[in-house]
Amino acid sequence: MTISLKKLLVLGGMAGLAGVTMAVPALAQEAEEAAETAVTLGVNPETAFVFNTFAFLVSGFLVMFMAAGFSMLESGLVRSKNTAAICLKNITLYSIAGIMYYLIGYDLMYTDVSGYIGSLSLLYNTSADELALLGGDEAALAAVVDNGYSVMSDWFFQMVFVATAASIVSGTVAERIKFWPFMIFVIILTGILYPIQGSWTWGGGWLTEMGFSDYAGSTIVHSVGGWAALVGAIILGPRRGKYNADGSINPMPGANLPLATLGTFILWLGWFGFNGGSVLALGSAAAAAEMAIVYVNTNLAAAAGVTAAVILCQIMFGKVDLSMGLNGAIAGLVSITAGPDLTNHFLALVIGAVGGAIVVFVVPLLDKLHIDDVVGAISVHLVAGVWGTLAVGIFGGGNIVVQFVGIIAIGGFMIVTSAIIWYILKLTMGLRVSEEDEESGLDRAELGMEAYPEFGYGSARS
Fold first, then answer.
1. 184: number of Cβ within 10 Å
2. How far apart, in Å, are the Cα atoms of 173 and each of 21, 168, 182, 269, 311?
3. Per-residue pLDDT reduced to its tens digit, 367-399
4. Please, what is the average pLDDT of the chain?
5. 296: pLDDT confidence band, cut at 50, 70 and 90?
6. pLDDT at 247
7. What does the DSSP 8-state code read for residue 461?
8. At 89, which helix (H) or strand (E)?
9. Is the model's pLDDT at 107 over the cut of 50?
10. Structure letter (DSSP) for residue 281
């Protein structure tokens, strides 16, 4: 009997496409057929359920650790007078993302998706079958196991992805945006904007029907955050003193490059959960083999991104650059995220290297356009994310036209909606801190505390 790869990934009654099976009846039916196949082959459905749930949870906390990576990266790349503020933004946006995704986001993205949007119902809780099992009803075991994974393990894994999208915006608009208007934007981004566009693909919506492919979110996560960051940076304007009237640029180096390096390594580690967990199963040999392939490709792409960025810096500028190397690693990771299941590992090197090269060209281009991106997130997450999504059509067997349509559709949606929200916030609350507060630093102005109080307010803080 011939079994498809997708069915192998859901052996033992595993709905291998995570929460999507609840939104797409056809996939749920396929999961039931796979369960029957698993019984025939003697696979233990409860064992597969445990492994699938375990994979979601472990991958989820690896992705959650990326929040620490973003905090360290951004803290290292801002000036010392803004360090405490950027740390507060990162832990707060992660918290808001989790709350909003529980209140409304997950349902909008995965429940009863009708092509363009899911359910408007509030709250997403443990299934009745799991509650019954926890209450001692052994008869509920079969229904729980048939779902393929614990309901809330899938919610947890999906939630940490939306927090990543919000973190991307934080780094770009750092050092001059007010705390509360930014958090209101995060509420809307994580609760509404991200879930709506996510439903178009991962929720089984219209882009899925067209054949758009984005394995772990080069576009759905990273470009979404990048588009929101780009629009925000344009509307907010550059930091004062960054650009001169004659077009020249005043460097504003980060205060702690070892911290930024640590943050990059943390992100690299977390990305194994980001991409590896997106196999969405670990209950079969096929799923385990695919996860190993994804891990290897993820690591190779990041390494190629670093190497390409460092070599290009030497060729173009006559010197190597640490911040470019760090962003090269992340760009390589973003680039491979749309198609990390490539069985030709050499292609992962190619995709990652192109991502690293993109950073070296796009970062100075944005400066020439006077678009002030403090940490380089637009180059890394937006442009490299677009490249990675197109690479699926070039190397991964996807349709390049469909991939392009998905990029344009999601990009257009994010540009329009983000612009509306940023402008409303600008007109009502104001986005920027005052010139005096920007000069003294957001730590002192908005928090009344400093990350490095022993340095005082002298020249070392500017």
1. 16
2. 37, 9, 9, 25, 29
3. 999 999 999 999 999 999 999 999 999 998 889
4. 89
5. very high
6. 85
7. G
8. helix 83-100
9. yes
10. -
Over residues 126-135, the pLDDT tens digits come to 999 999 999 9
Q: How far apart are CA 38 and CA 152, in angstroms?
A: 24
Task: Specify burial of residue 315 (Cβ count, 10 A radius: 0-12, 13-18, 19+).
Answer: exposed
The average pLDDT across 281-306 equals: 96
Q: How many CA atoms lie within 13 A of 303 on its CB side?
A: 11
119 φ, ψ (degrees, to nearest 5): -75, 145
Q: How many CB atoms lie within 10 A of CB 152?
A: 18
> Which residues fall within 8 angstroms of residue 40, CB to CB, at 6 or more apart?
1
Instruction: Identify the residue whose tokens are 């990273």.
Output: 222
**pTM: predicted TM-score of the whole model, two decimal places:** 0.88
Q: Cα separation of 10 and 53, whole Å?
A: 12
Q: Give me the residue label for tokens 């190497």.
A: 307
Helices 384-395 and 345-368, packing angle to 10 deg: 150
Question: Domains plus CATH for the chain?
Answer: 54-130+149-157+164-461 (1.10.3430.10)
Nearest CA-CA partner of 87 in 69, 64, 60: 69
Decide which of 29 and 336 is more confident. Answer: 336
